[in-house]
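ARCHIVE CARD
Drawer: 12
Card no.: 0347
Subject: one protein chain, sequence and derived structure
Cross-reference: see card 0346
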Amino acid sequence: MSPQVLPPAAEPAAAQQQGGQRPAGGDQQAQQAQQQGGAMPPAGASVLELLDSFLAVQQERAAAYRRFDAAFRAYLQNQAEGPFRYVMGQLTQEFQQLSRRVIAVEAALTEQGSTELAALLRTVQDNEREKLRLTLALHALKSAHAQRRFSWQHEEQAAGLAPGVADLLQGHLCGVGCMHGAPADEPTQAEYAAAVRESYQLLQGAITAINDALEEVREAQQELLAQ
């Protein structure tokens, strides 16, 4: 069994269709984020203005990730798919808008001959895409584990039963989960742990690459301010 993360909602109404409630304040936050996400750098902007615009995008990305994390934590606690799908739909649009803004700034820097700065933005953009992919992968793994989808989780529970009870159940933990046998593609406990560990390592690598590139962008910004 390959754990799957919940797909983003195609429309805001998905939350109500799933029988859930939209998160409080979600509409207002989403509208504000979308309005900010649609702002492109003005035509003829200077290199300094372009860098300011890019760094503003990164601040908005950080805020979006905080909402992303909060929504996922709430989902793990209450298993309410409707609100989570709704937030995911809003965040999907926001991340797309933010990416378009970075691409526009990168293109403007290239046109002005600031190819080294444009390359830094490309590094950030590529690693932001990898960061999002790995975050979704970790969410899928954590979600599957929290929902006890793996047969070895139920085997652990059976091991803690009183002597003879597990035999009496004959391989079943009815009401908790079924131990008929693990699907052929289900990861073992060791494979699950290794996948989580590897995802965290790769995620940290992407974050480090982003931070290193951002530091160079800020240094360039300070040099321009000093001129």
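Annotation on reverse: Strands lie at 172-173, 177-178. Residues 14-150+186-226 form one domain.
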